[in-house]
Amino acid sequence: MVWFVGVLIVFAIILLFSVVKIVPQGREFTVERFGKYTKTLKPGISILTPFVELIGRRMYMLEQVLDVPQQEVITKDNAVVKVDGIVFIQVMDAAAAAYRVDDLTYAISQLCMTNLRTVVGSMELDEVLSQRDAINTRLLHVIDAATEPWGVKANRIEIKDLTPPSDITNAMARQMKAERERRAVVTEADGEKQAAITRAEGAKQAAILESEGRKEAAFRDAEAREREAEAEAKATAMVSEAIARGDVNAINYFVAQKYVEAFAELARSPQQRTVIVPAEMSGLVGTLAGVGELVGLARTQQAERSASRAPAPPSRTAPRGGAVPPTS
User: Which residues of 43-82 are buried (b: 16+ CB within 10 A; e: fewer)?
Assistant: First the structure.
């Protein structure tokens, strides 16, 4: 009796697990009735018909990453490169992915490899190395169209590695080095050119400013000389007027000024090593007094000459009928 109860309990547990199915999130289960697909179980709890319905395939519905194995591809210009990549896929229809293709991951991997050879083989090496985005776009379009009947969506395809042959790599390195050196020479030449232009512009501006400075200085020197000449002329005119009026002090001032200026020029002369200064400055005063006396004598003589050139007084008229009386 105990044995029979134990068998019933085990049978009940097996029946329960075969009828009640819990589908986790991110998964979908297909249901088969006598080996034929009938429906798809979504995430959650579901109850099947015992001994009639069974779980067929358990499909992973999240995005998956598949590795594309590395392979050698001959480019359009007969260069051999090693290419590998990765593809991101997501199952959209569990039934189609389960029953329309056998071994889904292997099929997609082989599809990516063949299309990768096709796309890379239609391009030259330089294009392959520089246009990875274009290769990814073309591959994505082809793979997505091919996997659509399988209920799979290809989200992204990325070229993971591109390895050209070693001799081509060395040639590319030498080419890059030569190009860098050429750019360096061009950049250095451009820098020297700009520096020369800048120096020339600076010299030009300096010359212009210097010439303007000389012009302004010459203008101001001329103006200063003009004003000095005007002042000298006014001073000379005033001294001349004073001399004409007989002012001896003006003559003394004029002569003393010229004397002092001549003595100053003598003292500033670069060839002059010794300057003799008069012991008595009274000699200068005596000289000025002598000049004053000469001027006074010249004035007296000028007055006498003016008097001698004056006209004689008219003679007296004789009376009528008689002789002119003798002059006493």
Answer: eeebebeeeebeebbebebeebebebeeeebebeeebebe
User: Distance between CA 309 and CA 311 in Å, rounded?
Assistant: 7
Closest by Cα among 50, 43, 45 to 22:
45
Q: Is 30 exposed, middle or buried (0-12, 13-18, 19+ CB in 10 A)?
A: buried
pLDDT digits (tens, 9 = 90+) for 43-102: 998 888 888 888 889 999 999 999 999 999 988 888 889 999 999 999 999 999 999 998
Listed in sequence order, the residues at least 6 apart from 284 whose beta carbon sits closer than 8 Å to its beta carbon are 256, 259, 278
Helix (H) or strand (E) holding 95, with range, is: helix 94-99
pTM for this entry: 0.52
- Residues 6 or more apart from 249 whose CB is under 8 A from it? 242
- The closest alpha carbon to 296, from 236, 249, 260, 235, belongs to 249
Ramachandran angles phi, psi of 288, nearest 5°? -65, -40
Position of tokens 């015992």? 50
For the record, the structure tokens of 245 come out as 């009026």
101: left (phi over 0), alpha (psi -120 to 50) or beta: beta
**CA 89 – CA 154 distance, rounded (Å):** 4
